[in-house]
Amino acid sequence: MLYREALNRAIDECMAIDATVVLLGEDVGLYGGSYRVSEGLVAKYGEKRLIDTPIAELSIVGNAVGMAIGGLRPIAEIMTANFALLAFDQIINHMSKYHYMSAGKITLPMVVRFPQGVSKQLAAQHSESYEQMLAAVPGIHVFAASDVNYAYHALKKAILMDDPVVFIEHELLYNKKGEVDFNADLDPFKARLVKEGKDVTIVSYLKMVDDVMAMLPALEEETGKSYEVIDLQSLNPVDYETLKTSLEKTGRLVMVEEDHAMGGYGAQIVSWVAEKMFYALDAAPLRIAGENVPIPYNRKRELASIPTPEKIKDRIIAWGAENGL
Amino acid sequence: MMDKSIIEEIYMLMVLGRQFEYAAKEHYMAGDISGFLHLDIGQEALSVAAMKAFDHGDVFTTYREHVMAIARGIEPKAVMAELFGKSTGVSKGQGGSMHLFDPSHFFYGGDAIVGGHLPNAVGCAYARKFQESEQGVLALFGDGASNGGAFFESLNIASAWKLPLLFLCENNQYAIGTKITRVAPFLEQRKKAEPYMRTMEVDGNDALAVYETIREAQSYIQKGHGPIFVEAMTYRYEGHSVSDPATYRSAEEVEIWKHKDPIERMRKVLQERFDYGTSDLEAINKKAQERVDEALVFAKESPEAGVEILYDHVFKEVNHVVS
């Protein structure tokens, strides 16, 4: 099953289970979604539940908040992360705060979904990542789906949950193939152990997990070491237990993320490890992140602005050499 | 024609509202209330009559909402306790003056991002239409909100989808200290809505006119005609908030509006139409003052929750604390 099909199936099943589930966004209905996530759903559930909106992101999320107050269970789809910036007032000032400000009287069972990250030459206004900003906001859970199985289960749980969730997808993952275990009872707040290892813990999420896995056989062969790979999946809350268990074993942390290094999400993970696990470490952590530049159009420079499998491998080898690995 | 009991009730709530606001101001000055305190003095006709007229349906409003909350049926005690930050407050002291939420009264009062609640009202109106509910939605906002993007997006969507939404513009002519005509091409904000929907205007200081207009507008949206825009001209006597000395307005201008005082006008109605005498009016004042005093005692004596509830209600299902 493809990643986008897993998302489609999750939405489809939730719509079948609960008649108050609606999906709203640009081109989600008759067009089937700009990444085909909602393909076929309008034929099953009608235009009342697959709501084509104007290009007005503030309203897409703001209306979803109001729908949730009014008793619906909305999923707001934003076409891409950079457009979600227009809705940040609604996400941060409204969606994340109404439950708290009302002392629990208002609940917002809603999801905001969008893809992010570098795809292929979409340039500076269509390629950025904003998980670091959203994970910094109390009152919303932030999920990032790298795995097809997680995409299905976590989206389903997010839709049926009474808390507001920001569900982050990646532009390049929609056609990723993977298995879905439909019988599993997956905890969306848990990190995923992608590969076991004993010498180094590599922590990542979203598409960078695939980039890490792409270079891993070569890295292990070249260095003769074994690497454990963790996909965080839930960016807030963080499954620190899984990190702790892994780092107690390996004593070495590599954090790989696509967003800009300055204030990037991985800084939180490295900071936590430095504060809480300093004495378990055998080496200074390595953080591999995007450059602090807007994403350029030119393909060579675009790839130079973010981590790639080759760069990840080279950085880890150099760091390993400096740290006596 | 409005009957006597509803007119009396509106008058009573207006008097209560004004006394409540003066009491809140006094206790703000005394340090019992903190943060921002936006008083509704001078605008009671609009706040009370609109709430009484829009008797069922959801209400989304702004941070200047104490009087509306009370008119909506929320106990003055619970409002005052919220201003005092007590756990018996409407929002258990989590929200304060600007955030009085009570879904049991369909009151989503107190959004403090100017215009930010309008898309929420649109979404709620969508939900009501979806549910085939008779209930419409009222969104109240000031003239200051009608220059922002959320406002125009909301007019557009509510109109495109024919949603049962009543836009009620409380035009008091000032966005904090900026006169509306300095930042908009005209005073009447309903002109912005005219291409999208039917508009109405009403004297916001005439409680009876506000009541009749909102009734008519409510009936219009309930019949499935789509949204409607009502603009009510009014004036706040106080500054934007208690900390604003309002030096941007002339004393003469304030005086002109005080001559159109909404409570005075209702008093005349009661005297002329229903033969109210001085003692009847005194009795109402006294009753209102008793309720305010009772609210103050309640607020003062109520317990204040400690820091142990700091993390309550961040989430409903999975409450996580990131250390």
Q: Could you walk me through the main structural features you see in this protein, from its secondary elements to its overall organization?
A:
With 325 residues, chain A is α/β, with parallel strands linked by helices. Chain A has 2 domains: 3-173, Rossmann fold, CATH 3.40.50.970; 192-322, Rossmann fold (3-Layer(aba) Sandwich), CATH 3.40.50.920. Helices cover 38% and strands 18% of the residues of chain A. Chain A is built from 13 helices and 12 strands. In chain B, a hairpin with a 4-residue loop joins strand 2 and strand 3 (107-111). Chain B is 43% helix and 13% strand. In chain B, 52% of the residues are buried. Chain B has a single domain, classed as Rossmann fold (3-Layer(aba) Sandwich). The mean pLDDT of chain B is 95. Chain B is globular, with a radius of gyration of 19 Å. Chain B is built from 11 helices and 9 strands. Chains A and B meet through helix 3, helix 5 and helix 6 of A and strand 2, strand 3, helix 5 and helix 6 of B.
CATH superfamily of chain B: Thiamin diphosphate (ThDP)-binding fold, Pyr/PP domains
Tally the helices of chain A: what do you get? 13
Report, as a whole number of angstroms, the end-to-end distance of chain A. Answer: 39 Å
Biggest β-sheet: strands ordered side by side in the sheet of chain A: 2-1-3-4-6-5-10
CATH architecture of the largest domain in chain A: 3-Layer(aba) Sandwich
Radius of gyration of chain B: 19 Å
- Within CATH, the superfamily of the largest domain in chain A carries the name Thiamin diphosphate (ThDP)-binding fold, Pyr/PP domains
